[in-house]
Specification:
The chain has 22 helices and 21 strands. By secondary structure, it is α/β, with parallel strands linked by helices. It has 3 domains: about 160 residues, Rossmann fold (3-Layer(aba) Sandwich), CATH 3.40.50.970; about 170 residues, 3-Layer(aba) Sandwich (Rossmann fold); about 170 residues, Rossmann fold (3-Layer(aba) Sandwich). The strands form 4 sheets. It has a 6-stranded parallel β-sheet, with helices on both faces. The chain has a 6-stranded parallel β-sheet with strand order 9-8-7-10-11-12, sandwiched between helices. It has a 6-stranded parallel β-sheet with strand order 14-13-15-16-18-17, sandwiched between helices. Helix 17 links the parallel strand 13 and strand 14.
Length: about 575
């Protein structure tokens, strides 16, 4: 039935899909079950929406995150009641922590059965409340259209995040009249007035700074490519160094000489010391996470802080800021660039600052010496970066050492090319997120960098990639351990390796082939480049199991409870900033 035909006798499920189409939704990730079958029945006759069948509901949310993060759209998930909805909670938590716009629609038992402990009944609203930005249950078929619109707006407006809409089965089946007035997804909200007085103060502070640092986060990516372009233009005009968080990689081109690397626990020496010694910090779309700040009492002790964020609750929550700019960072950055242009900026005034940064760069904190017989994880990611040069690839990761090495060695010059679980640190994120990204970008290379522990968390999604012909590539950093857990046990817990060794790992090549993938294993450095090339050049899903040095640690590292000036460069080598002297201990 077309949108122009009489919709008086369409049921709640059909009206729900109509509302999604109006909002621009063309893809849903989901898994059917009894309480959501009316919606799946409506999908059967709905050519305007593609449904991607996953193999686990957590995978559905992560796939929707990959779709959303690489498109800027809302990712939509459809699951059944009870365990179907409950299985989404890890994904919803992940999306909440990283501000990813997700609309999760869960089926529910009929309204007459709610509260009776009916088969597969659960309190979806109660369960999801801590892991969503907003949630609701539809009680009447006439509320379907407005509820979908409200849920979508909640997910996408302001600070993005996941929302859940619970739809009882009888509401899906009931006949109702679709509203005569249709919503238009692109209808623009009136722009909030910019805080011009504070913007002028910020421009003056930046213009007068002797040791400024720009610090960008995931909020820049959420604001869109134009916001990242404005950020890049502002940084270039200021001639100041720029660092990015794990979630912000790609917001400023890594190839630019002003980029000093990732910040935080496993960030570069130069990025962390620049933050520690800065006199002005411009934070854009980041939230001063504890993995970024280290010990709060020692965080940027000499710096005045300018914080730009769309979420007023994020400003001043962790660190005190001198100038707060609340609003969309794209609009604020444009106005800040105009204000800064009115100042005469002596670029030479920053030369002493850059000279100091260069001394830290010369320490080459990411340097490594390749082994002749064993593949080092650093070598793997370095060669993968070389193999991906000029391909405009999208890369997802799971969580752990391989994630940090990927963040250190892979270089991104554009936003929306880097997918990782930051705030929640969710193992099992990588493969489904890559699938979601590949669904959104069928012509782009999409690679998942994973570890042997993480990849097993959602290994069943290999079947999803096969069914939907998404030729993603998995590059497995296989060290036989829960790598980051083992590293902390070695360095912090006296080498007591409590249950961090992965005994009885499967034959990953045989396992991947059983799912219909192409697959191979490589263990010698001389064969690595050829193996990567074969993997990346395949037209089909490909699983490359790379056996790496088992007990290699990821450095630099700022241990928990330390400041940015107390950095481990190796297991027994610290950089303790005292006249910039290296100290062994």
């Amino acid at each position: 039935m077309s949108m122009s035909e009489n919709t008086e006798h369409r049921n709640g499920a059909q009206n729900l899909l109509d509302a999604l189409v109006e909002l621009g939704v063309d893809t849903i990730f989901g898994y059917p079950g009894g309480a959501v079958l009316p919606l799946y029945d409506a999908l059967h006759a709905e050519p305007r929406i593609r449904h991607v069948l996953v193999r686990h509901e957590q995978g559905a949310v992560h796939a929707a995150e990959g779709y959303a993060r690489t498109t800027g759209k809302v990712g939509v998930v459809l699951v059944t009641s009870g365990p179907g909805m409950a299985n989404t909670t890890s994904g919803l938590l992940d999306a909440l922590c990283d501000s990813i716009p997700i609309l999760c629609i869960s089926g529910q038992v009929a309204t007459t059965a709610i509260g009776t402990d009916a088969f597969q009944e659960c309190d979806a609203v109660g369960i999801s409340r801590p892991v969503t930005k907003w949630n609701a249950q539809i009680q009447h078929v006439d509320d379907v259209h407005d509820s979908v619109y409200q849920a979508y707006q909640q997910a996408s407006q302001g600070r993005p995040g996941p929302v859940l809409l619970d739809v009882p089965k009888d509401v899906q089946l009931s006949l109702g009249r679709a509203p005569e007035q249709r919503y238009v997804a692109s209808a623009a909200k009136a722009d909030a007035p910019l805080p011009m007085a504070a913007i002028e103060q910020a421009a003056a502070l930046i213009a007068d700074a002797k040791q400024p640092v720009f610090y960008g986060g995931g909020g820049l990516i959420n604001s869109g490519e134009q916001a990242c372009q404005r950020f890049t233009q502002l940084v270039k005009r200021s001639a100041a160094p720029c660092t990015l968080t794990l979630m912000g990689l790609g917001a400023f081109p890594a190839s630019e000489p002003q980029f000093i690397g990732m910040l935080g626990m496993h960030g570069t020496l130069e990025a962390n010391l620049a933050m520690h010694n800065a006199d002005v910090i411009v934070c854009v779309g980041a939230r001063f996470d504890d993995r970024i700040t280290g010990r709060i009492s020692d965080f940027a002790p000499h710096a005045k802080k300018i914080h730009i964020d769309i979420d007023p609750k994020s400003i001043g929550k962790v660190v005190e800021t001198q100038i707060s700019l609340v609003g969309d960072c794209g609009a604020i950055l444009g106005a800040l660039a105009e204000a800064l242009a009115r100042y005469t900026r002596d670029v030479e005034a920053l030369q002493p600052w850059w000279s100091l940064i260069q001394t830290w760069r010369e320490q080459d904190s990411l340097g490594y010496r390749p082994d002749a017989e064993r593949i080092l994880p650093q070598h793997l990611l370095d060669r993968l970066n070389h193999a991906l040069a000029d391909q405009d690839a999208i890369v997802s990761t799971d969580v752990g050492q391989h994630q940090m090495w990927a963040a250190q060695y892979l270089r991104f010059d554009r936003p929306m090319r880097w997918l990782t679980s930051g705030g929640a640190g969710t193992m099992g994120y990588g493969i489904p997120a890559a699938i979601g990204a590949q669904i959104a970008h069928p012509d782009k290379p999409v690679i998942c960098v994973s570890g042997d522990a993480s990849v097993l968390m959602n290994i069943q999604e290999l079947a999803t990639a096969t069914q939907h012909r998404t030729p993603i590539k998995v590059v497995l950093c296989n060290n036989g351990y829960m790598g980051m857990v083992r590293q902390w046990q070695e360095l912090i817990h006296g080498g007591r390796y409590s249950h961090s060794y992965n005994e009885s790992l499967p034959d990953f090549v045989a396992l991947a082939k059983a799912f219909g993938w192409q697959a191979a294993q490589v263990s010698h450095p001389d064969q690595l480049d050829a193996a990567l090339a074969e993997c990346l050049n395949s037209d089909a899903p490909y699983f490359l199991d790379v056996v790496v040095e088992a007990q290699e640690n990821c450095f630099p590292m700022i241990p928990a409870g330390r400041g940015h000036h107390e950095i481990m460069l190796a297991a027994s080598k610290w950089y303790l900033e005292d006249d910039a002297v290296l100290s062994d201990s």
